[in-house]
Specification:
By secondary structure, the chain is an alpha/beta fold. The strands form five sheets. The chain has a seven-stranded mixed β-sheet, with helices on both faces. A five-stranded parallel β-sheet has the order 8-2-1-12-19, covered by helices on one side. Strands 9-10-11 form a three-stranded antiparallel β-sheet. The termini are far apart. Helix 1 runs parallel beside helix 8, helix 1 packs parallel to helix 15 and helix 2 packs across helix 15.
């Protein structure tokens, strides 16, 4: 069927990276007029989970709920999108080119990837595999997703594998827990096998000049606005109506709530809707120096509510409870330090041998909270004051007792988390000065790793459900065979797939990069795994 893109109207639910990418591909590649593209976003800001802003918990502080590591080989649709988006500070340089140039100057090569209980750097080149570990890895790669089903990682690997340096690095790089989906881990091994022999340095990581909100979201949003896109903040889509079971499968009406009240948007023959479902940052709460972020177990915001309504309408619209139903397996707590002085930063540089922006993740693998930190290049936030520095970190075992602060991380204030970190670093001699000059913003996220939940294929809807004529699903909780969730690439890939399919865009979608099937990428990786 031929589609007249010039007459089409797109109603995009959600202003995160998936929705914004959908709008960009529709305008750039499908020829939809910008004024015919409508983004409906409940919040007052775009970007979704890709955030970076002033802290809501401390004055003159900064915060990112999470951090994203980009990768050269895998992020093909992301690079495609941002190759035509002008960068934040120089309209003559694309976001893609800025990232290339930045990483030539600040190449990642961690010198302190793992640390022990005494704050000593562990030799990470000793991956620690034995013959059984290698067999278990080979077995996982040989199994089909159908055979794996909803198995846990620890059902596929022994305790020895889970104690290796390799696993300690892999799990904290990509945020896997042993109870997470073995199927998702298999996809990661296949997609990112090229990282096997550089996981100890993370030299394959690509970073942005500033945080991803400033370096990616803001430029993309500017470009969309310049094309005339209709962005409606403060607009929540509560439900969607569809045609009956014996009719062509179409979305017919969007039910919305905004400051004017309740209304509906009728979808006609030329209307398409792209719906973002689920959220890993739903019900996120903030704490400061002297406060603790609450863990919300009951739904307060609406991050999951639309999908829950849609799932009642058709069996192939997925099962949101698979991902949102076990908070204790998926919650995280992150923290951002705003340092009004460089005493801590200088000591970390001296200790690690890495200048800011070159060191990737440092993980205390024997710490009670399983702490990790990243020290980015400075400034990390656009508008960050001179003489102010930031770093980001998170805890993987937040209900354990700290080694120095004898309480759970989830019950600790920002100052207590900073105290634990300084002790883990062995910098007790500067503790008082660090506490006096540092503000801490903490973030509790109940669903941070929900996308790794154990699942079967039916738990996630296809990007374009079978028979759909005008509606698609977007985001991290859709099903795209062989691709890996918890990446910006997954959201952008889904957006490109949806737009290109509906509008018959002849330009090819970049193929999924399978590191395991690439001879150049896999050769050194397999040598590392089997050495």
């Amino acid at each position: 069927m031929t589609v007249d893109a010039s007459a089409a109207h797109l109603w995009i639910v959600g202003g995160g990276i998936a929705g914004m990418a959908t709008a960009a591909f529709a305008i750039r590649d499908a020829g939809v007029p910008g004024e015919n593209v409508h983004i409906l976003e409940e919040l007052g800001i775009g970007g979704g989970s890709m955030d970076g802003a002033s802290s809501p918990a401390v004055a003159d502080g900064w915060v990112s709920r999470g951090g994203r590591m980009l990768e050269e080989e895998v992020y093909q649709t992301t690079w495609d999108l941002f190759a035509t988006i002008p960068s934040l500070e120089n309209p003559d340089v694309s976001v893609r080119q800025e990232i290339i140039d930045f990483n030539k100057t600040f190449s990642t090569h961690s010198n302190a990837r793992l640390l022990d209980a005494r704050g000593r750097i562990i030799d990470p080149t000793k991956y620690g595999f034995n013959s059984r570990d290698r067999f278990e890895m080979a077995r996982l790669l040989a199994m089909t997703e159908k055979a794996l089903g909803a198995r846990r990682i620890d059902e596929m690997f022994s305790e020895h594998f889970l104690s290796t340096n390799f696993w300690k690095m892999w799990r904290t790089t990509f945020a896997f827990q042993k109870w997470h989906s073995a199927t998702e881990l298999r996809r990661y091994f296949i997609r990112f096998v090229q990282e096997f022999d550089r996981i100890h340095t993370l030299s394959g990581v690509r970073r942005t000049k500033y945080n991803q909100y400033d370096s990616m979201i803001v430029p993309l949003q500017r470009w969309l606005m310049a094309q005339g896109v209709d962005v409606r903040f403060g607009t929540r889509v509560t439900d969607v109506d569809f045609t009956g079971p014996r009719q062509p499968r179409r979305a017919t009406r969007l039910h919305i709530e905004d400051k004017t009240g309740v209304s509906a948007i009728e979808l006609g023959a030329n209307d398409y809707t792209f719906m973002t479902i689920g959220s890993i940052t739903a019900d996120a709460t903030y704490g400061g120096n002297d406060t603790v972020p609450a863990l919300i177990r009951d739904r307060v915001d609406h991050g999951w509510s639309l999908w829950e309504e849609l799932a009642k309408k058709a069996p192939d619209f997925g099962r949101p409870n698979t991902f949102s139903g076990n908070i204790d397996e998926n919650k995280w707590e992150s923290f951002t330090l705003t340092m009004h002085g460089d005493v801590l930063l200088k000591r970390i540089v001296e200790f690690s041998g890495n200048e800011p922006g070159t060191g990737a993740i440092m993980t205390w693998v024997e710490s009670g909270w399983h702490l990790s930190i990243v020290v980015p290049d400075q400034p990390h936030f656009f508008g960050q004051q001179e003489g102010v520095f930031t770093l980001w970190g998170y805890g993987f075992e937040i209900d354990n007792e700290g080694d120095y602060v004898k309480k759970k991380m989830s019950q600790s204030t920002g100052t207590e988390i900073l105290t634990e970190l300084v002790h883990q670093l062995g910098f007790e001699d500067i503790l008082d000065e660090v506490l006096a000059t540092t503000d801490v913003t903490t973030v509790m996220m109940p669903y941070a790793s929900a996308l790794f939940s154990r699942r079967v294929p039916e738990d996630r809807p296809k990007v374009i459900p079978d028979g759909s004529e005008n509606f698609a699903f977007l985001g991290q909780f859709t099903e795209m065979p062989e691709d890996t969730v918890f990446t910006v690439e997954y959201s952008v890939h889904g957006a490109m797939l949806a737009v290109y399919t509906f509008f018959g865009v002849e330009r090819p979608i970049p193929p999924i990069f399978h590191g395991l099937h690439d001879k150049t990428a896999s050769r050194g990786a397999l040598q590392s795994a089997f050495k």
